[in-house]
Amino acid sequence: MKDLLRQAIRSDVAELWRVRYAVRENTLTPGRISDAELIAQIESSGRGWVIENDGKLLGFAIGNAEDGNIWALFVDPDHAGQGHGRRLHDAMLDWLWSRGLQRLWLSTTPGTRAEAFYRRAGWQDCGLTEGGELRFEISNPST
């Protein structure tokens, strides 16, 4: 079966957490973000996308349409390097641009694969945050 790109839904939450906790960089302590916060990100303030194969999520992305924050973009390490991250990234950005946003932003740990990914995707390095992460921004290409 071909890898399916689709919108994330509430019933994906357990698989979203499985992928999130499987990553080896930009790790997150379980319980730091609640299910309710995650659901709000995919149902209220933004939208999420997943890549699914045979019922298993291979990766996901979540973008916030209120503040332009890329809330999450993660691929299961067993499925990295297959273009899933870029497919998710592009679908998310297309949707966020369609919502009228002019600038998007995110932060990530310096020296990670994520940093290299965002640089290749055209994001601009805006320096370090107070917490020591790199802040990246990208502008709507249609403006």
Low-pLDDT runs: none
Radius of gyration: 14 Å
Shape: globular
Name of the CATH architecture: 3-Layer(aba) Sandwich
Straight-line distance between termini: 38 Å
Plain-language structure description:
- With 143 residues, the chain is of the alpha+beta class.
- It has a single domain (4-139), classed as Gcn5-related N-acetyltransferase (GNAT) (Aminopeptidase).
- The protein is 29% helix and 31% strand.
- A four-stranded antiparallel sheet has the order 1-2-3-4. A three-stranded antiparallel sheet has the order 5-7-6, covered by helices on one side.
- A hairpin with a 2-residue loop joins β2 and β3 (56-64).
- It is globular and about 40 Å long.
- The protein starts with a strand and ends with a strand.
Throw out a few tags for this protein.
alpha+beta; Aminopeptidase; 4-stranded antiparallel sheet; 3-stranded antiparallel sheet
